[in-house]
């Protein structure tokens, strides 16, 4: 997909959450949407990989531990196939309709995991993002970076619990990687945050759920208020 229109010239607000598995993204997105439900703020939540019928099939292949021997560039191409479909089917239409879109992972994840973790480099990932995704950029990205080893331990415990419960969904392929892989991912995330400091807000350290939520709300409240004001004025 190479959109004819400028996807960054849209009335909606695009908010993404990033971080390693085990960083607390799912919990914080749920806390955020609970807050929005309470105050009546409309929103749409999606995720990557996944978020569409086609994307969910790609997700199953990408995250399944039985997908052994997947070449890094194959993995990268699958990530962008999923993203192109999600933009076309879900994200771009919602942003064009002046909606708040919350996405669990976006191209920062691909740059971190495939660019950093798989050693493919940032240039290839960003070039593909411009070509395939029309260079669509989030308005704000929340990057959760608790302690690396603590994040990995939580993610691996979660997958062990799912296995013991006999869950049919296997999404443990990445958690099986060595710690050196995740260190490269972690460092690439920090590199992205330094480069994109106006867009990316880092929440670091081993904080409790309530404190992280408070920092998330502080990071997004002013920008959402500005967007809501602009939307009201243009209506």
In words, what does this structure look like?
With 235 residues, the protein is of the alpha/beta class. The protein has helices at 25-39, 53-63, 72-96, 107-117, 122-133, 148-164, 179-195, 209-234; strands spanning 13-19, 44-47, 100-104, 140-145, 200-204. Helix 4 (107-117) runs antiparallel to helix 5 (122-133). The protein has a single domain (13-229), classed as P-loop containing nucleotide triphosphate hydrolases (Rossmann fold).
Q: What is the compact description of this entry?
A:
The protein is α/β, with parallel strands linked by helices and 235 residues long. The chain has a single domain (13-229), classed as Rossmann fold (3-Layer(aba) Sandwich), CATH 3.40.50.
Features:
11% strand; 5-stranded parallel β-sheet; 57% helix; 8 helices; 235 residues; 5 strands; alpha/beta; Rossmann fold
Count of runs of 4 or more consecutive helical residues: 8
- CATH class bucket: Alpha Beta
* Poorly predicted segments: none
Structural class: alpha/beta
SSE blueprint and pairings:
Blueprint: E1 13-19, H1 25-39, E2 44-47, H2 53-63, H3 72-96, E3 100-104, H4 107-117, H5 122-133, E4 140-145, H6 148-164, H7 179-195, E5 200-204, H8 209-234
Parallel strand pairs: 1-3, 1-4, 2-3, 4-5
Helix pairs in contact: 1-8, 2-3, 3-5, 4-5, 4-7
């Amino acid at each position: 997909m190479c959109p004819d229109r400028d996807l960054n010239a849209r009335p909606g607000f695009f908010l993404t959450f990033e971080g390693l598995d085990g960083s607390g993204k799912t919990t914080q997105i749920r806390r955020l949407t609970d807050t929005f439900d309470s105050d009546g703020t409309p929103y749409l939540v999606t995720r990557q990989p996944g978020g569409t019928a086609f994307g969910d099939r790609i997700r199953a292949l990408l995250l399944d531990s039985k997908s052994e021997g997947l070449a890094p560039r194959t993995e990268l191409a699958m990530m962008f196939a999923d993203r192109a479909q999600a933009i076309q089917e879900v994200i771009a239409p919602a942003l064009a309709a002046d909606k708040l879109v919350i996405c669990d992972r976006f191209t920062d994840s691909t740059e971190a995991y495939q660019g950093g973790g798989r050693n493919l480099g940032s240039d290839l990932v960003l070039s593909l993002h411009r070509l395939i995704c029309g260079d669509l950029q989030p308005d704000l990205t929340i990057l959760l970076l608790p302690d690396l080893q603590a994040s990995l331990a939580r993610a691996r415990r979660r997958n062990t619990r799912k296995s013991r419960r006999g869950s049919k969904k296997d999404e443990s392929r990445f958690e099986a990687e060595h710690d050196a892989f995740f260190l490269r991912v972690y460092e690439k995330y920090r590199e992205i945050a330094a480069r994109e400091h106006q867009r990316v807000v880092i929440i670091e350290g081993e904080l409790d759920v309530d404190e992280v939520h408070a920092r998330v709300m502080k990071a997004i409240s002013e920008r959402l208020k500005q967007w809501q004001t602009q939307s009201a004025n243009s209506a």
